[in-house]
Design goal:
470 residues, mainly alpha, two-stranded parallel sheet, 72% helix
Length: 470
């Protein structure tokens, strides 16, 4: 990090010269090292990631029971599902920058509290309208929460451990999805959907406790000019890791007057990364959440070939076999996140991202062929694996591509576009599946091709590149 009196182009005022030698945060992080603090942090990241994606996935297994209880039409069923992603997309875009303006901790704490409230509202909903409101609030909370949690996962460790935090977050997200399917296999039909929501939401409580305990991100404190709070946060980290920092240690601190500026986000330095990553993430989430709705319908319909499928208006539940297939495909996503992490750590980010996007496209093409159930399940599992690799690599790349002073804003913007893809993808499945499942797969293919092109446009390799503060 270079200090100069003429500014740095990001709206930050560089620190005045001091007689005491100053160290960068990266240098202090190397002294603090990896220890108990990071393990507590990664526990928090895992709990929030699990809770966020478990709440997003609940509807895929609960909807048959809810449809039966309230006699939902296909259109209202689609409205409930899409409402989660509408809330996510709108709130991630509007409030993602709050993490840059007010800090990561207060945003995560507030959003996690409201996530718990939304789960309780949904579980106790007396009618379909209250349930719709509860699920919309869920999407909004996850949209706000996830943007700041990505910053949490990235900003507390030196560069060689940086991918670990993101991997823990993404792995927890996929575990949340898988846990919903596995728990549904054992519990959903036995305890009912209301109690099922409460069981799945239990990890939100320890997440609240840990969020209140841990300090604000030192990188945010650094760029917001909060010198005393920065020293306290670093001291807390050092004490937990049983490392002693020098009493007179001083860290380079910037007073930035344009935290979370959209004009900075779209300047010449950042706009190519913002646009290309938004396109790739849109395609990835269109596929990911489209599959969440598509696969239960696909497995239960036993569809093969062309033509239409008759909509189910009765109270037919997902069978144990259907839930088992969903569980297996979800487990494949967990392995995919591990592969993505290993690729990012040892190969790089960019090439594996392009390869995994190509593999997802190949798997979708394979679903167009009418083959045995076992082969279809294998292709679906490979598709979920490839999609998870892309997702993991994206969430390692995105926070690394932007400075601390606008990181949460960039994440919120890209996240918002991604969840817009989720809105369109889930809505498309509900509207098109009963016309032609093959057409649904064709649309998945077209969007995946666009995402693959986006990976070719993005040209920044971020492996081993230290995070910029401003």
């Amino acid at each position: 990090m270079v200090e100069n009196s003429e500014g740095n182009g990001y709206g930050a005022t560089d620190p005045a010269p001091s007689s005491t030698p100053k160290r960068t945060l990266n240098e202090v992080y190397e002294t603090i090292g990896m220890g108990r603090f990071q393990y507590l942090l990664y526990t928090l990241v895992a709990l929030v990631g699990y809770s966020d994606y478990a709440e997003l996935t609940l509807l895929s297994v609960m909807m048959p029971a809810i449809r039966c209880e309230w006699g939902l039409t296909n259109y209202f069923e689609a409205a409930i599902t899409v409402s989660v992603f509408v809330g996510y997309a709108v709130c991630a875009g509007l409030f993602g920058k709050l993490g840059d303006v007010y800090g990561r901790k207060p945003v995560v704490l507030s959003a996690t509290i409201l996530l718990l409230v939304s789960a309780l509202v949904s579980a106790m909903a007396p009618n379909k309208w209250v349930f719709l409101a509860g699920r919309t609030l869920t999407g909004c909370c996850v949209g706000v929460n996830f943007s700041s949690m990505v910053c949490y996962a990235t900003e507390y460790a030196e560069s060689k451990y940086r991918a670990v935090g993101i991997y823990v977050l993404i792995l927890a997200c996929f575990i949340g999805c898988a846990a919903v399917n596995v728990l549904a296999y054992f519990l959903l039909n036995a305890i009912g959907w209301r109690w099922f929501i409460l069981v799945v939401s239990i990890p939100i409580i320890p997440a609240l406790v840990l969020t209140a305990t841990l300090p604000e991100s030192p990188r945010y404190l650094c760029v917001s000019g909060k010198d005393e709070e920065l020293k306290k946060a670093l001291g807390f980290m050092a004490r937990l890791n049983k490392v002693k920092l020098e009493d007179d240690v001083e860290v380079v601190v910037y007073q930035n007057e344009e935290l979370g500026s959209y004009s900075m986000l779209f300047n010449e330095t950042n706009k190519r990364s913002v646009i290309s990553l938004s396109v790739v993430y849109f395609a990835n989430i269109f596929l990911e959440f489209g599959l969440i709705i598509f696969l239960p319908l696909f497995f239960s319909s036993e569809y093969c070939g062309t033509g239409s499928v008759t909509p189910k208006h009765d109270c037919t539940m997902l069978t144990q076999e259907d839930l088992w297939k969903l569980s297996l495909s979800s487990v494949a996503a967990i392995f995919g996140s591990l592969i993505g992490f290993l690729c990012a750590s040892y190969i790089g980010r960019l090439i594996p991202l392009r390869v995994a996007s190509g593999l997802a496209l190949a798997c979708l093409l394979g679903l167009l062929i009418c083959i045995s159930n076992a082969v279809t399940l294998t292709i679906v599992s490979a598709l979920k694996l490839a999609e998870a690799v892309v997702n993991t690599l994206l969430w390692i790349i995105i926070p690394e591509s932007f400075a601390t002073c606008l990181r949460a804003t960039a994440i919120g913007f890209i996240n918002s576009w991604g969840k817009l893809g989720g809105v369109i993808g889930t809505g498309m499945v509900y509207l098109v599946f009963y016309v032609s499942p093959t057409l649904v797969i064709g649309i998945f293919i077209a969007v995946t091709v666009v995402g693959l092109i986006g990976t070719l446009v993005f040209n920044k390799e971020t492996k081993d590149v230290e995070l910029a503060e401003v």
